[in-house]
Amino acid sequence: MGSVIITGASSGIGKACAEIFAKNGYNLVLNARRIDRLEEIASKLKNEKIKVFYKKTDMSNKEDIFEFVESIPKDFYPIDILINNAGLSRGLEPLDQGNIDNWNEMIDANIKGVLIITKLIIPIMKKQGYGHIINLGSIAGHESYPGGNVYCATKAAIKSLTKSLRMDLIRTNIRVSSIDPGMVETEFSEVRFRDAQRAKKVYENIKPLYAEDIADVIYFIATRPQHVNIEDVIIMPTQQASVLINDRDYNK
Ligand code: NAP
């Protein structure tokens, strides 16, 4: 068994993916900016008798991404899977009140980071004769919502890229999938609002999805037989029917 690269593995969905793939014998290649978190995760998961390589990487920085890919030790090859998970939202203001630095942060990490690492990993997978790229999209890429403007646009971009990449790679035996969750309780809202109290309210009086629910499905997508390509999975909490309609707020 080869390795799985997980970007943004220091928390939430990325961390849960590291745990499930490690438990099932995959070696891990992890990145994120919070290296102390990666250290902690790596030391815990090494008990699963797998190898873990991790590197502090800012997925919004081109040079960092190049260095990350170049530094992957050769004994971590083959690279079976790339999980493009690192991403974030910042703010929830109408566009005219938006903060341009926030926009750049989202666009750079959520779109350009995915493009750059994918460009660098495809030649490795082509050489191997197989591989699987799994992108974290979002329900926000299917439906926009007020104040979601730039974040929604970045996830709509992931939806388009996933489809286009399938076409680009059709003769390569490299699979491309995306998973598009609704509300998942992670650090996502804390990062969006830079306010833990406000973030907590997002998940109050409703049962959201948890990072492990998403990691379970990603693991399922990755472990289908080679001739099966799951294109996209939309996954919602039972109590959420669309971005704005959920059991707590509907008809109030
Ligand atoms: P999270 O708990 O905040 O985790 C985000 C991860 O991405 C962290 O490990 C963070 O690591 C990393 N990251 C963010 N910016 C980065 C950068 N510039 N460079 C490197 N790593 C970066 O949130 P999450 O919910 O697990 O989010 C994971 C993915 O799922 C994102 O793409 C998000 O858009 C998507 N998603 C989330 C939800 C939801 O409701 N939570 C729904 C749909 C889709 P560092 O901060 O340590 O760098």
Strand order of the largest sheet: 3-2-1-4-5-6-9
* Series of H and E elements: EHEHEHEHEHEEHHEHE
Number of strands: 9
> What's the CATH H-level homologous superfamily?
NAD(P)-binding Rossmann-like Domain
Given the C-alpha coordinates, what overall shape results? globular
Q: Ligands bound here?
A: NADP nicotinamide-adenine-dinucleotide phosphate
CATH topology type:
Rossmann fold
Rg from alpha-carbon coordinates:
18 Å
- Average pLDDT reading: 97
The computed structural class is alpha/beta
By DSSP (H or I, 4+ residues per run), the number of helices equals: 8
CATH class value:
Alpha Beta
Query: How far do the termini sit from each other?
Result: 51 Å
Strand content: 15-25%
Major sheet, described briefly? 7 strands, parallel
Low-pLDDT residue spans: none
Using the 3D structure, state the CATH architecture.
3-Layer(aba) Sandwich
Relative helix content? 40-55%
Organism: Desulfurella amilsii
Protein name: Short chain dehydrogenase
GO molecular function: oxidoreductase activity, acting on the CH-OH group of donors, NAD or NADP as acceptor
Keywords: Oxidoreductase
Characterise this structure.
The protein has 8 helices and 9 strands. It has 252 residues and is of the alpha/beta class. The longest helix has 29 residues, at 100-128. The protein is globular, with a radius of gyration of 18 Å. NADP nicotinamide-adenine-dinucleotide phosphate (NAP) is lined by residues 8-14, 32-34, 37, 57-60, 85-88, 109, 136, 138, 181, 183-184, 186-188, 191, 211. Belongs to the short-chain dehydrogenases/reductases (SDR) family. It comes from Desulfurella amilsii. One of its GO terms (molecular function) is oxidoreductase activity, acting on the CH-OH group of donors, NAD or NADP as acceptor. Keywords: Oxidoreductase.
